[in-house]
Amino acid sequence: MYKIGELSRQTGLSNDTLRYYEKMALITPATRTEAGYRLYDESSLSRLKFIQQAKYVGFSLEGIKELLSMRLDKSHHSCGEVKQLTEDKLVEIDNKIEELLRIKQALQVMNDACCGGAVSAEHCSILQALETGEPVKREGHL
C-alpha cells in the first residue's frame, strides 16, 4: 500500500494532481486509515501509469475516463471501439497541426516583412497588420 506521497514519488505526479484525479474519479484509494490518510494499492499505480501514457499521446481526461472504462470492462468493449477513439484523436491532432501551420505561416510572413530595426513601433508593420487584420504584403508572398 502507498500513501499519497509515496504514490507521488513513484509516478512523478504531485499530490495535488493525485487528489484531482481522485476528484475526477480517475483513481480511488484502496482504503483510508483511521486518521484519514489515503492508501493506494498496486492497481492504483498501474492505473496512474496508464493515465500518464494516455496523456502523453494526447488524450484528454475525458478520453482517458472512456479508455479506463473500456480497460476495466474489456468483455463489453471491442478493440474497434478503442481504435475509433485513437482514430478520432489522430483527426483532432491533424486539425491542430493544420491550424498551427497556418498560424506559423502568417507569423512568418509578418516577421519577414518587419525590418526589426530601431524604427519607432509607430511604423511597425507587424502591429499595423494586427490592427488592420490585413496580411503583411511582401514580395513573393500574399
From TrEMBL:
<protein>
    <submittedName>
        <fullName>Zn(2+)-responsive transcriptional regulator</fullName>
    </submittedName>
</protein>
<dbReference type="InterPro" id="IPR000551">
    <property type="entry name" value="MerR-type_HTH_dom"/>
</dbReference>
<dbReference type="InterPro" id="IPR047057">
    <property type="entry name" value="MerR_fam"/>
</dbReference>
<dbReference type="Pfam" id="PF13411">
    <property type="entry name" value="MerR_1"/>
</dbReference>
<dbReference type="InterPro" id="IPR011788">
    <property type="entry name" value="ZntR"/>
</dbReference>
<keyword id="KW-0238">DNA-binding</keyword>
<dbReference type="InterPro" id="IPR009061">
    <property type="entry name" value="DNA-bd_dom_put_sf"/>
</dbReference>
<feature type="domain" description="HTH merR-type">
    <location>
        <begin position="1"/>
        <end position="70"/>
    </location>
</feature>
